[in-house]
Design a protein that fits this description.
Blueprint: H1 2-17, H2 24-27, E1 38-43, H3 53-64, E2 71-76, H4 79-87, E3 93-97, H5 98-107, E4 111-113, E5 122-130, H6 134-149, H7 152-162, E6 183-188, E7 191-192, E8 196-198, E9 204-205, H8 207-219, E10 222-227, H9 233-238, E11 244-249, E12 266-268, E13 273-282
């Protein structure tokens, strides 16, 4: 029974971490025809496992003789769109990361993490590159290992996530500029504070940008931020509009093989950060 419960939680994690191609603006207005299912808001991600997701779901159910699928995913191109949909009751819950949830709650206490939600899975953050960029991948891995060993990643996590002030937007980060060096173009959504944020005046900020700045300084490379909708990152990568996109690795098990959510032609760096997936609701406090 315990194993079955774990698998149910794992599938929820897959829904939260799998890389689909839906359009949030259109899907948000569709009515859920499956009675009793929870409409779960999720950020649109890179295209990977949607083609075989039905086969995977059937395999889980047949293997463990359990019925899964209490959530219907509804995709959005930005966190802001998803928050508004939750507030207007177009969806019932949203799936996001614990660090983002803490930031949202600090900004608006009407947002709440589901206390009784049994999801206990963690995504690993890394970089995705085209498979012909092995040299760049190896360089990123080298720097990530250095930053882990010397405590830099722990320091940046504390500064930009653990101890971040919510009284104002995440602080802007100065990106390195080396006139005689090459440039790494990296796609960001700018819409996932405190992890990933671009201010209204176009200044990149947040934890991921701080990590990129450190990487650029260590590699002596220019870092160019390309702000792009989440669902467009795959096309930006394959068309060589950018060299790198942020990626999250879902937990792996006997049922979920390694790289099951990685499209063909893509290679991944080593992880540089991990964060727990949580579900959130919006419940407006009654006026006293």
């Amino acid at each position: 029974m315990k194993f079955k419960k774990v698998v149910k939680m794992l599938l929820s994690c897959v829904l939260a971490g799998a890389l689909f191609t839906g359009c949030g603006g259109d899907n948000a207005e569709k009515k859920d025809t499956d009675a009793g299912k929870i409409k779960l808001g999720m950020i649109t991600r890179l295209n990977a496992s949607e083609e075989n997701f039905g086969e995977f779901l059937k395999k889980v159910e047949d293997t463990l003789n359990v019925k899964i699928g209490s959530h219907n995913p509804v995709f959005f191109d930005s966190l802001n769109q998803m928050q508004m949909a939750l507030q207007s009751e177009q969806i019932d819950e949203i799936s996001t990361y614990r660090s983002v949830a803490r930031y949202m709650i600090a900004k608006d206490p009407n947002f709440n993490v589901l206390k009784d939600h049994s999801l206990e899975f963690i995504d690993s953050f890394c970089f995705a590159l085209r498979d012909d960029e092995t040299e760049l991948r190896d360089s990123l891995n080298m720097v990530i290992e250095e930053m882990q060993s010397d405590g830099t990643l722990d320091r940046l996590t504390k500064e930009y996530i653990t101890d971040i002030s919510t009284e104002k937007d995440p602080p802007a980060v100065e990106l390195p500029m080396f006139p005689a060096s090459g440039t790494i173009k990296i796609a960001v959504t700018g819409d996932l504070p405190p992890l990933d944020f671009v201010s209204t005046d176009g200044k990149p900020a947040g934890f991921n940008t701080a990590v990129l700045a450190e990487i650029g300084n260590r590699l002596i490379k220019n870092i160019e931020i390309v702000e792009i909708d989440s669902g467009a990152r795959a096309a930006a990568l394959t068309s060589k509009q950018v060299d790198v996109v942020f990626w999250s690795i879902i937990p792996v098990s006997e049922i979920i093989p390694q790289d099951s959510d990685k499209p063909d032609g893509v290679i991944l760096s080593n992880p540089y950060y991990k964060d727990k997936i949580v579900h959130m609701i919006f419940k407006e406090e009654e006026q006293k």
